[in-house]
């Protein structure tokens, strides 16, 4: 037993000397493993205590634990001391010119399409509209049948619409959101449905297979075409300024009756100059379609057309964005060119 005590005292002295001589935290860690690791000297010594008589084992175990606690405390103190010294030395050796200007992180910005969405959403929220979203993958019923589109309508053709199967398509407009809203809400209804839409268009300077729309729907008692015209004028003047005017041309859509195309005064030349690349000298630019909701559409959605009427309109977000920024190629929106997007800081 005397030999074991001597061995413990010897280990205690060795650890003090080696810790005092350590110059780095790594040396202290190596010492910890050597003394307290699975095969360390202290660990092996404690394992050998099992061969001693019971009384001697109790006394030696107490002594061994005291030495082990002492070693752990010394190692931890040395580790903290050396890490602090290393930090102080690093600070002394580093040179910092506090007069240098800070490094500014590049600031992100919203995509021009997103800016247009946000701007219009602000308008409609202030006018009392709800913003409503819907699925990109739609049923044929919500996309065509409920919108009064006949089976021979060109939009049903696979050359125009992306079919997933016989019953599902990638929506070519956000009109199905209007149908879903009429099915689940009772009038009065006042919503806009913004989002992406998909059509089988070849990519060129005027078409992309993915683009963006915001469609509006108002259903209530006594809604007239005059209400629709007034709303269109509010939108156009909000987006293009007080000098902008609209012109309505008769058109045909299966889901509205009567229907109209909405033109605005040319946002480039303003007066129909013969050399204007946008209006081609006409003085007008086509923007979107609109009309009074067809009675059959109201019926299919569970709304009595004898009691309620309404209007709908569809805004081409890409076209509006191009008009606002003087762009002529919609492909620019999808190329993720940072130099192009940087032009719209703060837009």
Summed up, the helix count is 11
Strand line-up of the largest beta sheet: 1-4-5-9-8-7-6
CATH third-level topology of the largest domain? BirA Bifunctional Protein, domain 2
Distance between the termini: 85 Å
Roughly what is the average pLDDT, rounded to an integer?
84
Describe the global form.
Answer: elongated
Classified in CATH, the superfamily of the largest domain is Bira Bifunctional Protein, Domain 2
Helix content: 40-55%
The largest sheet is:
7 strands, mixed
Describe this structure in words.
The chain is α+β, with helices and mostly antiparallel strands and 347 residues long. The chain has two domains: 2-93, no CATH class; 112-341, 2-Layer Sandwich (BirA Bifunctional Protein, domain 2), CATH 3.30.930. The protein contains eleven helices and nine strands. The chain has helices at residues 2-21, 25-36, 41-47, 54-93, 112-126, 140-143, 175-184, 225-240, 295-300, 317-325, 338-341, and strands spanning 130-131, 137-139, 168-170, 189-198, 210-220, 246-253, 256-265, 284-293, 309-316. The strands form two sheets. A seven-stranded mixed sheet has the order 1-4-5-9-8-7-6, sandwiched between helices. The longest helix is centred in the first third of the chain and has 40 residues, at 54-93. It is elongated.
Q: Which key features would you list for this structure?
A:
347 residues; alpha+beta; BirA Bifunctional Protein, domain 2; 2 domains; seven-stranded mixed beta sheet; two-stranded antiparallel sheet; 19% strand; elongated
In short:
The chain has eleven helices and nine strands. The chain is α+β, with helices and mostly antiparallel strands and 347 residues long. The model has no long low-confidence stretch (mean pLDDT 84).
């Amino acid at each position: 037993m005397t030999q074991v005590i001597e061995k413990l005292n010897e280990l205690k002295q060795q650890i003090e000397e080696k810790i005092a001589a350590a110059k780095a935290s790594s040396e202290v860690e190596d010492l910890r493993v050597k003394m307290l690791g699975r095969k360390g000297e202290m660990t092996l010594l404690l394992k050998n205590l099992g061969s001693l008589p019971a009384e001697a084992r109790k006394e030696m175990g107490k002594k061994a634990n005291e030495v082990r606690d002492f070693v752990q405390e010394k190692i931890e103190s040395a580790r903290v001391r050396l890490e602090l010294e290393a930090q102080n030395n690093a600070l002394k050796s580093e040179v910092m010119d506090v007069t240098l200007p800070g490094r500014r992180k590049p600031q992100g910005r919203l995509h021009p399409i997103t800016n247009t969405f946000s701007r219009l959403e602000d308008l409609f929220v202030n006018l009392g509209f709800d913003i409503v979203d819907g699925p990109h993958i739609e049923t044929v019923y919500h996309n065509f049948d409920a919108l009064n589109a006949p089976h021979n309508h060109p939009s049903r053709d696979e050359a125009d619409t992306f079919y997933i199967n016989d019953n599902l398509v990638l929506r070519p407009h956000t009109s199905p959101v209007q149908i879903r809203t009429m099915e689940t809400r009772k009038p009065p209804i006042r919503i806009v449905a913004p989002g992406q839409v998909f059509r089988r268009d070849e990519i060129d300077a005027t078409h992309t297979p993915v683009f963006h729309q915001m469609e509006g729907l108002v259903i209530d008692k006594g809604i007239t075409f005059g209400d629709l015209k007034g709303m269109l004028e509010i939108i156009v003047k909000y987006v293009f300024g007080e000098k902008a005017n609209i012109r309505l041309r008769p058109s045909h859509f299966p889901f509205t009756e009567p229907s109209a195309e909405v033109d605005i005064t040319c946002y480039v030349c303003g007066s129909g100059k013969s050399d204007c690349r946008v209006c081609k000298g006409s003085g007008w630019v086509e923007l979107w379609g609109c009309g009074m909701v067809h009675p059959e559409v109201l019926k299919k959605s569970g709304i009595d057309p004898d009691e309620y009427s309404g209007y709908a309109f569809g805004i081409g977000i890409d076209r509006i964005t191009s008009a606002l920024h003087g762009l002529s190629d919609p492909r620019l929106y999808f190329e993720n060119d940072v130099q192009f997007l940087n032009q719209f800081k703060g837009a």
